Every structure is written in C-alpha cells, then in structure tokens.
C-alpha cells in the first residue's frame, strides 16, 4: 500500500454512496430485495452474482433509470430521491453500459464532447450566434475531451476524428469511459468493463481502472463477470443472489465464502469447488490490490 492510498478507517468516514434497504419489484418479481451497500471515497467495489441476480437493476436504480419500490439511495449524504438520469449525472455519478452505448454515426471526439454538454453554459441560441465566449468554451471543451482520450494513450487521440464504429470493441469501451469522465463524476459505475475483450485487453482495462482511482481519485463501482478481474481489482466485493446481498467482504473472504460458492456452483456442484478456487486464485505478486490491507 502506498502512502497516497492510506485512508481513515471506514467507520470514521462518510460513504460517498449508500444504499439502505433498497428493493425493486417488477410485478411479482423482487429483482432487488433489501440491499444495503456503502461505498467509500476512492474505493473500488464490485458487485458480482449469477445471471439475473439483480446487478444491473442496482445500477439502474442508482442512476435514476428505475425508481426503487422502497429503500433509500444516498449520495454525498443527500438522498437521490426521484432524481432523473440527467440529474444524477449532474450530482456527480456517471456510468457505462453492458452493451456499449455510443453514437456510431459520430466521431470519437464528438462522442466525448456529448459527455461534456452538461457542463457547458451555451444555449442553442448562443450556439447559433456564437459570441466569442461560446467559441472559447467550445475550444476549452475540445481541449479537455482530447486530454480525456489521452488518458488511454496517444492512439485514441490520433483517431479522434474517426467514426467510433470503426474502432475495436476494446477502444469503444475506452471511449465510453472517456465520455463518462467528461461529466466530471465523483463516482463511476462500470457495467462489465471488460466484456468482449481478449486477455491482453482485459489486463490493460484492469490497469486503467486502477489508474482512474489512483490518478483521477475516482470512486468506482463495477459489475464484472470475469472473477479473476474482480478478485484482483476490488477493495471489497458484494455478492447478489436472487436480488439479495448474500455476502460482502474482501476478495479473500468472498473467495472462501460457502454461500457464494453455492450460489455460483449450485449445491450439487461441490466437486467443482477446486475449479472455483483455481478461478479465484489470488493474482500474482504486484498485481493484487492491497488498497485496504
Ligand atoms: N425492466 C424489467 N422488467 C421486468 N423484469 C426485469 C426488468 N429488468 C430486470 N428484470 C428481471 O430482474 C431480475 C434481475 O435482472 P438483472 O438484469 O438486474 O440481473 P443481472 O444480475 O444484471 O443479470 P446479468 O448478469 O444476466 O446481466 C431478472 O429476473 C430480470 O429478468
């Protein structure tokens, strides 16, 4: 652990985001039930669980896409209440999606600029008549968008005028994160950030997710199906099953948790436990994230 990561114990800090007994019903189905979760500044927290466990629904509740049936979601000490997705972004939360949602008929740079529009002051009339301050604001937005692309290396800067449809899947995921960063969030929600990536791209994604926390001081909540990634990157992990949180803890605790093993493998699959243990083995020295250890 480096000195810059040392933080006060959680008990003395205020969570950046807190879910209190959050429940979401779809008709008779309880997709999320009584979920409590606290995420502290500059943590990387993962939500894992089998298909249909309620992970994406939790993201949709936090980001204002769904209204909770009951319970409370609190950001920086203030309830999000009925905040719309737009208002949630203004409060400082940004997200990416399981299925990348970029504008394919726009360039890389234009997509990132879309993420900046909430911060800009110019109205439609200003944009039409373009007084000097609007031009200045546009230039500043453009400069910042390029800077955000450069977080992922020079190659995205070089391809800023390319239509996003021409980029690799991994690059499109990077552009989607750059667009989320453009709204200057405090909390970034990443829904399966390594889906569709090969091993090398996945390892690179793990590296830049850590940099988002370490260099940009972001707090990160992610859903990730690749358990090797989750185990290596997370400070804490929350496990959902049938909408309920069945476990929460450090990666090592989750790896050994009987309820988690059962949820993933089913009761009849105890013979597969060794496979599970192998899949979740700690990352090699230097790769493990010892943020809170
Ligand atoms: N809009 C909706 N209307 C009705 N049911 C829904 C809706 N959204 C999700 N569900 C149901 O809620 C449950 C939880 O779904 P959710 O997508 O949150 O799970 P998940 O853990 O993200 O799954 P996956 O890993 O497959 O993405 C599932 O049974 C799903 O069918």
From TrEMBL:
Source species, domain of life: Bacteria
**What is one Pfam family matched by this protein?**
ABC_tran
PROSITE patterns, alphabetized = ABC_TRANSPORTER_2 (PS50893)
User: Per UniProt, what is one GO molecular function of this protein?
Assistant: L-isoleucine transmembrane transporter activity
Q: Does the keyword Heme apply?
A: no
The answer to whether keyword ATP-binding applies is yes
SUPFAM superfamilies in the record, alphabetically? P-loop containing nucleoside triphosphate hydrolases
- Coiled coil stretches, renumbered: none
What are the UniProt keywords, alphabetically?
ATP-binding, Nucleotide-binding, Transport
Q: GO CC: one term?
A: plasma membrane
Q: Name one GO biological process term.
A: L-isoleucine import across plasma membrane
All copies of the ABC transporter domain together span 17-267
Listed PANTHER family: AMINO ACID ABC TRANSPORTER ATP-BINDING PROTEIN, CONSERVED COMPONENT OF ABC TRANSPORTER FOR NATURAL AMINO ACIDS-RELATED
According to UniProt, the name of this protein is ABC transporter ATP-binding protein
